[in-house]
Specification:
Layout lengths: L1 H22 L3 E4 L2 E7 L2 E20 L6 E20 L5 E6 L6 E8 L5 E22 L3
Antiparallel strand pairs: 1-3, 2-3, 3-7, 4-5, 4-6, 4-7
């Protein structure tokens, strides 16, 4: 009987560990809306939410393979923490913007798309409420 209880405890602990690992790469967003508009020379991405927690890496197809883009990122959250990072094709952080409560924070810089033209970005939120982020990008001259 004691062996069965011990096995059950280990099984539950293992299942919990697997769930934590699977959910650690997730961004939970309530009341979220995301839109994007991509044109031949640039575009934008916009998202708003009521609440957000977690971390997620996402992509936006720009139609510009291995292109250098000038970008402006704006983040805002009424409460909590919100950060958006633009990632280069090799996965390195090109630009990071961390919001402050009740304040809009913006940064500009350059980022490179991957071989298929995707702009990679990572959103990290901790207790963020009533927030938004925007990314505006434009291709640089060749």
């Amino acid at each position: 009987m004691a062996r069965l209880r011990t096995a059950t405890i280990y099984w539950r602990a293992g299942l919990l560990a697997v769930c934590v690992l699977l959910l650690s790469g997730c961004l939970f967003m309530s009341g979220g809306r995301t839109s994007s508009d991509v044109l031949p020379d640039g575009g934008n991405l916009s998202a708003t939410f009521v609440g957000a927690d977690g971390r997620s890496e996402q992509t936006l197809d720009t139609g510009a393979p291995q292109a250098n883009l000038n970008a402006i990122v704006i983040v805002q959250a009424e409460r909590g923490e919100l950060q958006l990072e633009l990632l280069n094709a090799d996965g390195s952080v090109a630009l990071a913007v961390k919001g402050r409560p009740d304040e809009s924070v913006s940064r500009s810089g350059s980022v490179q798309t991957d071989t298929t033209g995707r702009l990679r970005y990572r959103v990290t939120a901790a207790g963020a409420r009533n927030g938004s982020y925007q990314v505006f990008f434009q291709r640089t001259a060749p």
